[in-house]
């Protein structure tokens, strides 16, 4: 399976198509990594509904596991989201 994924990504890259996954909970504009130079024009501009729910729940004192159940994400993804958006949690 790993070889199939690897060759699929290499084919997308060779064709100049976007590669990479958008971050959960954030609104993005632009494309992912492209072409042989791996330049990304993707910019994250704000939070989507799940992202806003996580920030609101964390401010209310919910744990990462509770937040993960709320939005249906893995707890590790919620943790990474909170670390990345630490400034949004400040009063």
Structure description:
The protein is α+β, with helices and mostly antiparallel strands. The protein is 51% helix and 14% strand. The protein contains five helices and four strands; from the N terminus they run H-E-E-E-E-H-H-H-H. Strand 2 and strand 3 (39-40) form a beta hairpin. Helix 2 (49-59) packs antiparallel against helix 3 and helix 3 crosses helix 4. The protein is elongated, with a radius of gyration of 16 Å. The model has no long low-confidence stretch (mean pLDDT 82).
What global shape is seen? elongated
Q: Strand sequence of the main sheet, in spatial order? A: 1-4
Largest sheet: 2 strands, antiparallel
The proportion of strand residues reads 5-15%
Mean pLDDT across residues: 82
Ends distance: 46 Å
- Using only C-alpha atoms, the radius of gyration works out to 16 Å
The secondary-structure class comes to alpha+beta
Order of helices and strands: HEEEEHHHH
DSSP strand tally:
4
- Helix coverage percent of residues? 40-55%
**Secondary structure tally, helices:** 5
In short:
The chain is of the alpha+beta class. It has five helices and four strands. α2 runs antiparallel to α3 and α3 (64-71) crosses α4.
Strand and helix layout:
Layout: H1 2-14, E1 26-29, E2 33-34, E3 39-40, E4 43-47, H2 49-59, H3 64-71, H4 75-84, H5 86-89
Antiparallel strand pairs: 1-4, 2-3
Helix pairs in contact: 2-3, 3-4
What are its keywords?
alpha+beta, two-stranded antiparallel sheet, two-stranded antiparallel ribbon, 5 helices, 4 strands, elongated
């Amino acid at each position: 399976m790993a070889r199939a994924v690897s060759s699929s990504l290499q084919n997308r890259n060779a064709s100049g198509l976007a590669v990479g996954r958008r971050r959960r909970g954030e609104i993005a504009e632009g494309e992912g990594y492209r072409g042989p130079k791996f330049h990304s024009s993707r910019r994250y501009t704000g939070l989507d509904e799940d992202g806003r729910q996580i920030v609101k729940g964390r401010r209310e004192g919910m744990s990462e596991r509770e937040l993960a159940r709320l939005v249906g994400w893995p707890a590790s993804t919620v943790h990474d989201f909170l670390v990345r958006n630490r400034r949004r949690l400040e009063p």
